[in-house]
Amino acid sequence: MNRSLKRGIAASCLLTLVLNLTACGYFLYPERKGQSGGRVDPVVVILDGVGLLFGILPGVVAFAVDITNGTIYLPAGGSSAIDRHLTANEPQAKEVVDQNGQAWIELPLEAVSGGEEIDAQNLEQVSAALAQYTGQQVAVTDIVWLQDLVALEQARAAQQATAAR
């Protein structure tokens, strides 16, 4: 056999072995060994599936090793890299209840306006984001933008003072 052909075969076998070993959750997530079930990590499944491109045997071995050792499963309360990537682009709105029992929606400026100051032009954008979060139409006049609870108390005091006159 030709010497360069032997080197080519050896190099391709070595490359296949290295790619297959790095695609295995057993080597990527050794802290997951011993888990018995849970949500399947799509990243590990995809990487194990890549082993099937090199042949049935490497792919089946990768899946078998990950399933028997439990490294294919996400840890309890854990999220995969795909989940973290998808949720990183969503606005991080949440409901907040103050000490008076009033419910507010906390929506970071960056989620709506790219970090700019809120003005009349992008209040419509804030209204649309709130409508998406609450499932109801939110009038622009109902939006109160506050930095903290001190500003909330000052706004309430000013409103009560105007109503008392």
Approximate strand percentage: under 5%
Biggest sheet, spatial arrangement of strands: 1-2
Distance between the termini: 102 Å
Strand count, sense and barrel status of the largest sheet are: 2 strands, antiparallel
Keywords:
165 residues, mainly alpha, two-stranded antiparallel ribbon
Tell me about this structure:
It is a single chain. The chain has 165 residues and is mainly alpha-helical. The chain has helices at 3-22, 25-28, 42-53, 56-69, 81-87, 109-113, 120-134, 149-164; strands at 94-97, 103-106. Helix 1 (3-22) packs antiparallel against helix 3 (42-53) and helix 3 (42-53) runs antiparallel to helix 4. The longest helix has 20 residues, at 3-22. The relative contact order is 0.08.
Helix-strand blueprint:
Blueprint: H1 3-22, H2 25-28, H3 42-53, H4 56-69, H5 81-87, E1 94-97, E2 103-106, H6 109-113, H7 120-134, H8 149-164
Helix pairs in contact: 1-3, 3-4
